[in-house]
């Protein structure tokens, strides 16, 4: 099993030369026992009678009589390719839709929430679809997101070219094969998450972009947010996504079944070509090769930089990732800034009143289109009201004294929303979204001083274990609660035992059993994956092997010098910097930037546009050469030797700075007692000035 963990970890971190592979979906192998309903894990448990009873009850109460989503998801189907697997240029599997075919057997799985199973089947759509006759097409099921093609007078406008070059290229080839070959005249990035721009090099040549032959259009702030959102805490995010995305879970009724807004993420070459046109106004009209578009900027919704698009000639509304087949994350479990549910609701409302009265079709970067004005307005209102109710009701509860540690057990959607599939929280969950709203407005503290400066779990847990009478009593009670189907109660006490005794294998196995049943019962795959992923690591240890690498040359170019300097300050071990005091002037002549970098009071700061009059050291290096340092292709010492970097003044400041820098790796425990006793060998010869890894932001 350790070998399997290592192989899976390596498979999502393959790097060939300067090509970077997106971590995620294609790297995880299918489970040969999935079709037979066999559990992939020797320690795994079948759904308990309590879980089965819960699922059966849901099958009777959920609105399964509403089958419109199934009809709409199949509408406009043109063709599927003969293949189910797409290979990456590096030789690994970039995409494997066939690994989820166990979902198409027509059977109910008691190990999957019935609503989630429905969503997982809907996301099995695979191939080319027509959205607006002879005008708009989508390729779905080639990646986590959809790629859309709008026919112009002479070619295609591509909306959101997926995560990887290989899957985007395959989609374009399918379109040209079935509809006739046409050139790509423009690309639109709807927002700043990787599954909406990473495959751009599969559909356009950068030379055509630079020459002006191909336009790339994006919302204001796109380049900053495409990188910045995922840098400062990127290492922690990368480790945490192992749970949210179920990275170690085989595709199985007992493991990974879906990612809510798509099956999974492709594991191919992730690239980025800088936009040539930025949409700055709240509403901005543009005609590209005969196609009229109005862009609606929606910053601070699903992404910090995002925009919807309306096509007045076709009465078609592109909802980006603001309106899909699920209520989204207000807080995403891998980690990100908390989003604004109220702003999200208001932006949907703006779209509803501006475009909803005449739109005849709504399509998006995930899920499937909705046709007919009544249906478009229905889904718009459902999602508008879901975000508004979440924001308003949670704050209503908070103003009545409900705290962040209680609200997830108190907040409930109204029945009128529960009965609508478009209001179900597959990507988000009512539990973690409700806590996020309070966190946004009131922060993490519940106002009880006992929780303001709590003991760390590893320090508090032994006290609980001692007061509860020791591990034997806790194990006995935990097993009793498990047998009674009281899984959250069992989790409460057994989790304490695992923190107190991280090497207690029976305790970890019992907690894994508890997590597994909770996971089976969850509608949100992010929540399901987190419980099942934690169960996997409790049973078999955390992954070993190479860690995912996400810094390709495109992402490095997109990282500003200021962002890189800020990241260096985070990587600095402040204890090692005690007593250090210096200033370094940094100048990059080829782009005219200047910085002062100052070490003072064990803090590293920088300011753009200034030079210190009496610096300890001045470093002059072209930004184009600095990018090679940031990308790990060279070092400052090599650039000095080549005459490409000049150090003027006391080099001691540079050496002191280097001595404080650390290299982050996502090899820390998320659950106690899961790290191998023998630590893997440290990364050799990694320059501390190399830019830190950028977290994967696929699907937010």
**How many DSSP helices?**
22
The share of residues in helices is 25-40%
| Silhouette | globular
Mean pLDDT across the residues is: 92
Distance between the termini: 30 Å
Say how many strands there are: 21
Q: Which structural category fits the helices and strands?
A: alpha+beta
Rg on CA atoms, Å: 26 Å
- Across the major sheet, the strand order is 1-4-5-6-7-8-9-10
User: Mind describing the biggest β-sheet?
Assistant: 8 strands, mixed
Strand percentage lies at 5-15%
| Uncertain runs | 1-26
Layout of secondary structure:
Blueprint: H1 2-11, H2 49-61, H3 68-74, E1 77-79, E2 85-87, E3 93-96, H4 114-122, E4 127-132, E5 136-140, E6 147-151, E7 156-159, H5 165-179, E8 184-188, H6 206-211, E9 215-219, H7 222-228, H8 234-244, E10 277-279, E11 283-288, E12 291-297, E13 307-311, E14 316-318, H9 341-355, E15 361-363, E16 370-371, H10 373-398, H11 415-418, H12 430-442, H13 457-467, H14 471-483, H15 487-500, H16 505-520, H17 525-540, H18 553-558, H19 561-571, E17 582-588, E18 593-600, E19 603-608, E20 617-621, H20 623-630, H21 636-641, E21 645-649, H22 652-660
Helix pairs in contact: 9-10, 10-12, 13-15, 14-15, 14-16, 15-16, 16-17
């Amino acid at each position: 099993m350790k070998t399997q963990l290592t192989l899976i970890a390596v498979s999502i971190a393959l790097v060939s030369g300067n090509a970077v592979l997106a971590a995620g979906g294609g790297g995880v192998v299918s489970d040969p026992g999935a079709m037979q309903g066999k559990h992939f894990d020797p320690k795994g448990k079948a759904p308990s009678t309590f879980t089965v009873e819960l699922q059966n009850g849901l099958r009777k109460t959920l609105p399964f009589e509403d089958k419109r989503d199934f009809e709409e998801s199949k509408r406009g189907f043109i063709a599927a390719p003969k293949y189910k697997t797409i290979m990456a240029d590096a030789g690994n599997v970039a995409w494997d839709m066939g690994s989820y075919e166990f979902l198409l057997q027509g059977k109910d799985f008691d190990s999957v929430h019935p609503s989630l199973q429905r969503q997982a089947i809907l996301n099995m759509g695979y191939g080319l679809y027509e959205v607006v006759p002879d005008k708009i097409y989508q390729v779905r099921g080639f990646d986590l997101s959809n790629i859309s093609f709008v026919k112009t007078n002479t070619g295609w406008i591509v909306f959101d070219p997926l995560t990887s070059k290989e899957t985007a290229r395959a989609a374009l080839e399918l379109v040209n094969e079935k509809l006739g070959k046409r050139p790509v005249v423009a690309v639109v990035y709807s927002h700043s998450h990787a599954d909406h721009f990473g495959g751009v090099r599969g559909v356009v040549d950068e030379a055509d972009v630079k020459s002006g032959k191909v336009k790339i259009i994006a919302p204001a702030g796109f380049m900053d947010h495409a990188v910045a959102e995922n840098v400062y805490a990127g290492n922690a995010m990368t480790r945490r996504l192992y749970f949210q995305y179920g990275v170690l879970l085989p595709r199985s009724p007992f493991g990974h079944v879906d990612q809510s807004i798509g099956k999974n993420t492709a594991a191919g070459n992730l690239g980025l070509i800088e936009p040539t046109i930025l949409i700055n106004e709240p509403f901005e009209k543009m005609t590209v090769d005969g196609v009229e578009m109005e862009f609606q900027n929606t910053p601070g919704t699903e992404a910090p930089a995002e925009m919807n698009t309306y096509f007045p000639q076709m009465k078609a509304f592109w909802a980006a990732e603001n309106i899909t087949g699920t209520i989204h994350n207000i807080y995403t479990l891998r980690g990100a800034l908390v989003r604004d549910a109220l702003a999200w609701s208001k932006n949907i409302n703006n779209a509803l009143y501006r475009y909803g009265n005449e739109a005849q079709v709504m399509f998006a970067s995930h899920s499937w289109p909705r046709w007919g004005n009544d249906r478009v307005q229905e889904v718009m209102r459902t999602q508008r009201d879901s975000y508004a109710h979440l924001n308003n009701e949670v704050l209503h509860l908070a103003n009545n004294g409900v705290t962040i540690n209680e609200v997830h057990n108190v907040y409930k959607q109204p029945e009128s929303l529960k009965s609508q599939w478009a209001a179900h929280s597959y990507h988000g969950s009512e539990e973690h979204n409700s806590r996020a709203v309070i966190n946004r407005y009131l922060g993490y503290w519940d106002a009880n001083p006992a929780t303001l400066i709590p003991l760390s779990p590893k320090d508090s847990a032994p006290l609980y274990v001692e007061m509860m009478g020791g591990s034997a009593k806790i194990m006995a009670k935990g097993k009793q609660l498990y047998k009674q189907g009281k899984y959250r109660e069992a989790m409460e006490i057994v989790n304490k035992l695992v923190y107190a005794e991280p090497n207690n294998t029976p305790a970890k196995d019992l907690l894994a059993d508890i997590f597994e049943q909770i996971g089976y019962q969850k509608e949100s795959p992010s929540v399901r994956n987190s419980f099942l992923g934690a169960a996997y690591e409790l049973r078999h240890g955390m992954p070993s092997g190479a860690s995912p690498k996400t810094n390709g040359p495109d992402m490095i170019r997109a990282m500003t010098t200021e962002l890189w300097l800020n990241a260096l300050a985070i990587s600095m071990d402040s204890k090692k910097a005690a007593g250090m005091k210096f200033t370094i002037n940094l100048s990059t002549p080829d782009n005219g930037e200047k910085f002062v970098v100052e070490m003072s009071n064990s803090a590293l700061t920088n300011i753009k546009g200034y030079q210190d009059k009496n610096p300890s050291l001045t470093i002059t290096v072209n930004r184009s050469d600095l990018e090679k340092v940031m990308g790990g292709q060279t070092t400052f010492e090599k650039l000095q030797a080549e005459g490409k970097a000049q150090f003027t003044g006391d080099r001691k400041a540079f050496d002191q700075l280097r001595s404080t820098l650390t290299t982050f790796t996502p090899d820390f425990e998320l659950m106690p007692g899961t790290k191998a006793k023998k630590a893997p060998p440290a990364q050799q010869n990694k320059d501390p000035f190399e830019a830190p890894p950028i977290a994967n932001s696929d699907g937010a």
